[in-house]
Amino acid sequence: MGLGAKIRITLEMIKWEHSIFALPFALTGALLAAQGLPAWRTLAWILVAMISARSAAMAFNRWADAALDAANPRTKMRAIPAGQLSRSFVLLFTLVMIAIFLAACAELNRLTLELSPVVLLVLLGYSYMKRITRWSHLVLGLALGLAPSAAWIAVRGSLDWRIAVLTAVVVCWVSGFDILYACQDMEHDREAGLFSVPQALGLVAAFWVARLLHLAVVGLLIWFALLFHFGVAGWIGIGAVALLLLYEHMLVSPRDLSKLNAAFFAMNGVIAMVFLGFVATDLWLATRR
Questions:
Q1: What percent of the chain has pLDDT above 90?
Q2: What percent of the chain has pLDDT over 70?
Q3: I need a surface site. Which of 13, 132, 190, 211 has the fewest CB within 10 A?
């Protein structure tokens, strides 16, 4: 198999298009830090850092979980267990993405580069959390939740505690939908000795934990809006996010997981983009007052 084909399969394996989950929140952090549109050079390097970091994290996860994926009927056809890619190639891809991420951080500012090992520790460390704790969902949430704070630092070279509230929003949001997604692997996780909220608490309790986390998202967004003095557009955006989260929970239940992929992939991408759109509109309107 040629290099081009291997890269194509790798990109399919890591679902690079799902960068849309965290990227809008990173861009939100960048817009708020700049109080408008950041310099194009800064914005470009933020995009490079985000995409390379996520690619490294996903590829490393597939590398670390290759044996676990092979034993799970839902994941046994992923690229490594299916024999489409070797573990050594995926590890090499991971290292290349890490190098690109570090180069992007170096191009942004010194603090971004200094904190990059911490980001990598969270991103790569997540792959092993399911082996040791039922709360691995929170680590995944943190992995994506670092995006808005990291983007703020990339623009300003310092951290404002207010943007950490948006990090908390993303942690709760991602943790909630990851708990729902893990419901489909509950029985396998119990047999394989892996940990998750559904494995530990059962489907009904897992759904309630996810609901509580998503209620926390709405509360934190209200606090965030007050901290940054959102206008009408920003508040409409929060209302839209709340309604979309409600709709997401209406799609699935402990008795019916058939629409889980729709709730997990489509709806969460929409939620992220809707929030970015309304915040960007709010900032634009503020500059015209």
A1: 66
A2: 96
A3: 132
